[in-house]
Amino acid sequence: MKPERLLRRLATGGLSNVHFEDFVRLVEGVGFELLRVSGSDHVFIHPEVREILSLQNAGGEAKPYQIRQFLRLVERYDLKVEKP
Asked: Per the confidence metrics, is the pTM higher than 0.70?
């Protein structure tokens, strides 16, 4: 799924059945970079965001509470999907 479309879906409350790979593409699409993978934790940083974002792959899907954390960061820092 395209990052722009996924962000619209998540913003309207569709937090379940989100493929982890699609979510990672979205996270990277707004400017986060993978810092490290430590066990099951994928740790992302963003040059304009003070917090780190830690995600876990739960059977191929993103965890809803981590999606909500990401959406709060997008709103707080006014992040947009970068065009390639």
From this structure: yes
Q: Which residues contact 4 (CB under 8 A, 6 or more apart)?
A: 29, 81
| CATH number of the domain bearing residue 17 | 3.30.920.30
Location of structure tokens 């997008």:
74
Which domain, by its residues, includes 15? 3-76
In tens, the pLDDT along 12-30 reads 999 999 999 999 999 999 9
CA distance 51 to 73: 8
Token pair for residue 18?
A: 């989100």
Cα dihedral 20/30/44/68 (nearest 10): -60
Within 13 A of 19's CA, how many CA atoms are on the CB side? 7
Element (H, E) at 34: strand 33-38
